Structure formats: C-alpha cells, structure tokens
Amino acid sequence: MTGELFPRERREIAPGAVLVPDWLDLEQQRELVEACRAWARPPAGLRRVRLPGGAEMSVRQVCLGRHWAVVPRCPVCGVARKTSPGCPRHSYPYAYLRTVADGDGAPVKPFPALLDTLARRAVTEAYGPRLDGIPGAVGYAPDVALVNHYGEGARMGLHQDLEEVLDAPVVSLSLGDSCVFRLGNPVTRTGPFTDVELRGGDLLVFGGPARRAYHGVPRTLPGSGDPALGLTGRLNITVRSTGLPG
C-alpha cells in the first residue's frame, strides 16, 4: 500500500515468524490471482472442507501437489475415528492424499513452478543470514500449496499445521482483502496471542519456534483490497515442504 505516513517495516512478530510487507508488487499479485483462478477450476478444483465434526469450513480451498483432507482413518497405522478421537502417533484425522477423495476424486493438480520459485525466494528473504538456524530453511524444497479463498464473513479457526513430516518453514502469501492474522504458541489454543494485519502483497514466513504454533484468521476486512486486482475477498496461498516420499 502506498501513500502511508509511516510505511510498514518488516518485523519478526514472534521468534521464527517474519512479516515482510508489500513483498509482492501489483504485477506479481495479478499473476498469482490469474493462476489461482486457473487452479480453482475443475477437475480437482475449489471446494469446501468438511471438518471431523461435520461442519464445513467457511473458506473455500484448492490444493496443489498433494490434497489436504479429513480422512476416516489414519493413513499410517489405520486407527479409525469411531474407535479413537485421533491417532496418537500421527497427524490423523488430517492427511495429504494424491486425489481429491472428499470431492470429485480427480488427481490433485501438480505443484507449480511459479510457487516453487516464490517460496524458495521468500524463505531466503525472511531469514537471510539466519537460514542455518531455522530447521528446513537451508535447501528448502516446497512440494504442497493450499490456496484458501475468504469471502465476506469467512474465517479460519485456530489450528496447527501438523501434517508435514518436516519442520521446514511455511510460506504465506496474501492477496486481495486484508485480514487479522492471529499467532499463538505451539502448546495451547488459549494464548497469549499476537494479532497482525496482513494486506494484499504481504509475505509471512513462520518456521523455527513458530512452525507448530496455533494460528488462524478471526476476521477479514471486506473491500480493503486493491480494486486493480479484480478480486473479491481474500486469497491466501500457503506453501509447505512436507517431507513425504515420492
């Protein structure tokens, strides 16, 4: 955003969580919006995730590289939901799949080179000379992206990203409307919390001590995005390195 009296500066909002404002210029944002529109088309397109309790997430999502979904049993050891609230050893009831098993059953779209390039550059930009001290930052090799669309009133509850084998950083790119991003700690949902505003073009990378922290989006700010994007709502692209085989 331009014309501000006090331009926003990059900062570490928590140990390992680095915010770089306005990292993407307008042309890069436009390119990503158009790419997201293509990725959202069927097959294996945009859908709503139904959570283990039966409710649907208010955001709509498309996955690239691997498909993130709720599964009826742990894909590693076979523990079923009806016999256990969750697998004690693995990330169940969520898992990465090769097909959109909770949708049209199509193979997931491949992880795109565009996001691979951006995510590798983002990790270097965020940590610079500190790369050696962040697990998975050196030789960062992303293979999965989750693209979430927030319409008016959509939110994301507090959660941890636990489905990845590696503790490599998560790269988050924001497009369109601003949001309130809430970052907690790796132990409990009850805080303390740090709330920051993420705007279109912002980069957030969280790794190291912040990698498994609870985080969420309690609200968006409808109509706050740059109208030049032609985008209604907010798009968030999170890129991850899973460490899963093949």
UniProtKB/TrEMBL annotation:
Stretches assigned to the Fe2OG dioxygenase domain: 141-243
Pfam family, one: 2OG-FeII_Oxy_2
Alphabetical list of SUPFAM superfamilies matching this protein: Clavaminate synthase-like (SSF51197)
GO molecular function, one term: broad specificity oxidative DNA demethylase activity
One GO CC term on file: cytoplasm
Cofactor note as given: Binds 1 Fe(2+) ion per subunit.
Superkingdom classification of source: Bacteria
The protein's required cofactors: Fe(2+)
Magnesium recorded as keyword: no
PANTHER family: ALKYLATED DNA REPAIR PROTEIN ALKB-RELATED, NUCLEIC ACID DIOXYGENASE ALKBH1
Entry protein name: DNA-N1-methyladenine dioxygenase
Organism, as annotated: Kitasatospora viridis
Top-level taxonomy: Bacteria, Bacillati, Actinomycetota, Actinomycetes, Kitasatosporales
